[in-house]
Structures are given as C-alpha cells and as structure tokens.
Amino acid sequence: MKGIMTALITPFNEDGTLNDKGLREVVRHNIDVMGVDGLYIGGSTGESFLMDEAMRSELLKIVKEEAGDAVTLIAQIGSLNIEEAIRLGNEAKELGYDALSAITPYYYKFSFEEIKSYYERITEETNHPMVVYSIPVLTGTQMTIDDYGELLAIPNVVGVKYSDTNLSRLTKLKELYPDKVFYGGADDMLLQYIISGADGAIGSTYSLLGKQAKALFDALQNSELKEAKNLQLEMNQVIAKMESIGVYQTLKHVLKEQGVDAGFMKFPFKELTDDEKRQASEIVDILASG
Ligand code: NAY
Asked: What ipTM, to 2 d.p.?
C-alpha cells in the first residue's frame, strides 16, 4: 500500500461513453512504462463524480481485468448516495481491489458526526480496507487532528489520502497513528509530503511523471535530499504548466501525443483549444528531452 500511485484519468469517447480500449491503454502505460506502485481508480482525476453508477462499475471491472494483480488497486467508491457507495464498494471488493476509498461527503455542509457516520456505514457494510479521501480544496471540508483520529479509529479504516496541504498536521497524524497509511495528494509537494511522514502519494500527474516520482521517492528512502529536490523542481516545471492549462485535459492531450488513447473529457469539462493544445505539446518535448 506504500509508494507512488497514479490517480487514473478515465478516457471517454466523444459521446461521453467509456472508452474501453483507451482505458486499458492508460492502465498498461502506468504499469509498464511509468512503473508506478498502484492505481487509484475513480477519483477526482477519474471524473467519476460525472458518471452514473453503471459506468463507475464498468470502470472498476475493466481496470481490474487489465491490471490483474500487478499493482495495488484502490477503488474510490464514495458517493453522496450511500447505497451507491456501498454497492460499488462491495463490487470492488468482489473484483479483488486491495482497498476502497471514499471522498468525504460534499456539497451540503455536513457535520463531522454525519461525515463519520458515512464512513462507519460504508465500512460496516463492505468490510474491506478503507482509505479516507480528504481533499479540502475541492470539497471545502477541513478536518482537525481529532477528526482524522476519530475516522482512523473506525474498524477497517487503514489510512488517509491526504490531499490536505497542512504538513505539520500530517506529521502529527503520522506520529499519533504510525500504523496507518498516509498518501500525499498535491504532486508539486511530493518531497514535502514524504519528509512530513507520508508513506507515499496518489496523484494525477504520475501518468506522465511516474518515473520521476518513483526516483524521488527512492532518493528520499536513501536520504538523498539534493537528488530528491532536483527531481521535484524538474517535475514542478511540468506540473505548473499543466495547472495553467488544465491538469486533466493536459494529461489526456500529452498521453495521446505519446501514443496512448487517453480519450475525451466528460461533459461539462471542455476540451483544450488549439492554442492550449500547442502549449500542452511543449510538455511532450520537455518529457522527451528529460
Ligand atoms: C484524485 O482523486 O484524482 C487525486 O488524487 C487528486 C490529486 C490531484 N488533485 C486534484 C485536485 O486533482 O494529483 C493532484 C493534482 O492533479 C496535481 O497535484 C496537480 O495539481
């Protein structure tokens, strides 16, 4: 469960249906070319909040079929509809996913007690390892150390995908819960997350920067801080460019230029304009020269 995991994009056809062939290519690319340790399926990067349940279920089936047991697989099954989350969680468990993950329930301003009961209910009814997905920048839900502690005390909650950027809180959490697993979630801070106690990271840009991220992670395990810093700076040039154009769209564009059928975005996400495509193509050159 440790190391570098790609938050997988989902390739769609132009009409919004799932691009089965492209999805398999993206899975293969991450395992065979990037050499990442795991895949996180159906997260923010995977646009799963724009999909219906049948499509989410199909996504989980195809990825497992293609990846087999080659890498760790985590299925993000969170949904505002608890029954849907439980059904998807049980499906992922039956398919052989290593763990489930669920976004903190969003949109409504749920109380912490409500958030906690959501995790209790999903874990009780799926009885499978659960990674809490905390991403305040998208959900607006900020949790305290005590809140995280209460969630980590729920049976089957094995860790947190910590897309929170408060690093001193992360250090404290790892100190308090050394047996739980914590994943960093902002790719331009991978080095800082690991130094602050994270066991690994889950990020979208590792579909392109997986090798560098793995090298950075290994450098830190060997206390090679200077090497790690250089790798982070190199990665950040690409990440900043992606952020200025649109991370998910740029990922798909660059992968397609690299020969991987990453497909289209799901409505209402827009495709890149011609000018943005030209900017995104510069990343292809940067990666090829690195
Ligand atoms: C997911 O669920 O897809 C994620 O892991 C999210 C992590 C990404 N954050 C967002 C908001 O998409 O990888 C990061 C992010 O794309 C990267 O740091 C570049 O900003």
From this structure: 0.98
CA distance 156 to 18: 31
- Give Dmax over CA atoms of the chain in angstroms: 51
Choosing from 9, 48, 247 the residue with most ligand 1 atoms within 8 A of its CB, the one to mutate for a pocket test is 247
Q: Which of 73, 74, 82 is nearest to 53 (CA)?
A: 82
Distance CA 80, CA 9 (A): 21
- Series of mean pLDDT values for 10-residue runs along the chain (290 residues): 96 98 98 98 98 98 98 98 98 98 96 98 98 94 96 98 95 98 97 98 98 97 96 97 97 97 97 96 89
Whose CA is closest to atom 16 on ligand 1? 204
The binding-site residues of ligand 1, defined as CB within 6 angstroms of any ligand atom, are 7, 40, 43-46, 137-138, 163, 185-188, 202-205, 239, 243, 247
Report residue 226 as tokens.
């200077």
**Residue to mutate (ligand 1; options 135, 189, 204, 238; most atoms within 8 A of CB):** 204
Helix (H) or strand (E) holding 63: helix 53-67
Number of alpha carbons in the 13 Å side-chain half-sphere of residue 139? 25
